[in-house]
Amino acid sequence: MSSHVERTPLHGELAAPQALNAEFPAPKRTRVFFVDNLRVSLTILVIVHHLAITYGALGAWYFQDPNKDMLATVVLSILVAIDQAFFMGFFFLLSGYFTPGSYDRKGGRTFLWERSLRLGIPLLVYDLVFDPLVLFMAGGVHQSYWSFYGAFLLQGKMIGTGPSWFILALLFFAVLYALGRWFTRQQTSQLKTEGHPPTFSSTLLFVLALTVVTFVVRIWWPLGSYAIFGFQLAEFAQYISLFAIGLVAYRHNWFLYLPDALGRVWLRIAIGAMLLFPLMILALGVVGHADLFEGGWAWQALLYALWESVVCVGLCIGLLVLFRRHLNAQGRLRKALSEAAYTVYLIHPLIIVPLAYAARSIALYPLLKFALVVLIAVPLCFFAGYVLRKIPFMHKIL
Questions:
Q1: Rounded Cα distance, 342 and 91, in Å
Q2: What secondary structure, in 3-state letters, does 25-81 show?
């Protein structure tokens, strides 16, 4: 997914939009390096997240290490809860931001064709090839693979399984966006560099609205419940709203014009909420009563939805500003990591599951083993992604 955007160059602190327009009347398409670097960081977090579940955190994953420890479970579950609060929503925000520009440059047919190639083909490959192979490796090699594969096909649960649910969701969103543009006959999505960025009040209202909608959705679909295509509907209020915010943000160039002060404030709020989380779960008795926080008509579920929304919005705004100011450049290494990020997301289960399975007999404390495997898995995944994209024509899909 490209990080090209039509934009006006920035000069340190944000200048008046009128002055920028006068000085740069013809914006150029430029690589937004801080978004590329954010995507790499989020992809690394996906690997860490799944390895945390492997070594004790609450959650579902292909393989879980047999060695359990209560402290490791608590620590890693807190990490997973914080990750889950924002990282996939952040991916949807970034995807939404670059969707209108892609449609404008390519037109509806080419846009859908490219999305079908870059999303549809990897989706089918993962669900029909990678997913059964990872399941086979996670269970140990106790039978013929082809016998296992035949039984896998007969189960009929092959669409949107594992991490591929995200790719399927993006494909749905792309089709719905194209249909919306077609029905409204909106041929262009003009970039407005003079658009006013969000204020603290508007973002706070969004947090409260997201909290209420999330709470209502979880009355019927609590956390941990899955519906069609493996989508966890309890999280989709966040995913849909952030994708939509990304569409609006593109038209107003918000990623480039978010005030630094707004980013600092929301980043501090998010960090404060994360630090309070362990105290919150101890004070409110989450241990042994997690179902009260997962959904239903419980005030604990409303409080958790509020905490999650604060962390999500705070980190999205805060990290966008932080990366824009301090990580808006790319050398050869960062460029290679950025190009491989989508491939890494797709293939990382093929690497971390057999790696964790091979390390299952190593006698290490779970938190130490988790750290060790993370240090091995992250560079290994990106190296594999880099090599895979060197195969002829693969870069057009991955």
A1: 11
A2: CCCEEEECHHHHHHHHHHHHHHHHHHHHHHCCCCCCCCCCCCCCCHHHHHHHHHHHH
Distances (CA, A) of 154 to 146, 148, 158: 12, 10, 10
Question: What residues does 6 pair with on adjacent strands?
Answer: 29
Token reading at 65:
């290490």
Which amino acid, one-letter code, is at 115? R
The span from the CA of 32 to the CA of 36, in Å, is 7
pTM: 0.88
Tokens 């340190």 — which residue? 12
- Burial (CB < 10 A; 0-12, 13-18, 19+), residue 229, is middle
Give the tens place of pLDDT for each residue, 122-166: 999 999 999 999 999 888 767 788 888 888 888 776 676 788 999
- Give the gyration radius of the chain's Cα atoms: 22
Count of Cβ atoms closer than 10 Å to residue 180 Cβ:
11
| Angle, in degrees to the nearest 10, between helices 70-115 and 33-54 | 130
pLDDT digits (tens, 9 = 90+) for 243-269: 999 999 998 999 999 999 999 999 999
pLDDT of amino acid 24: 33
Instruction: Calculate the alpha carbon distances from 173 to 138, 168, 283, 307, 373 in Å.
Output: 31, 9, 39, 26, 34
Q: How many CA atoms lie within 13 A of 198 on its CB side?
A: 26
Report angle CA 384, 386, 392 to the nearest 5 degrees. 105
Q: Which residue has the tokens 């390096």?
A: 33
On the 0-12 / 13-18 / 19+ scale of CB atoms within 10 A, 109 is: exposed
pLDDT band at 193 (very low <50, low <70, confident <90, very high): low
Report how far residue 349's alpha carbon sits from residue 64's, in angstroms, rounded to the nearest whole number: 13
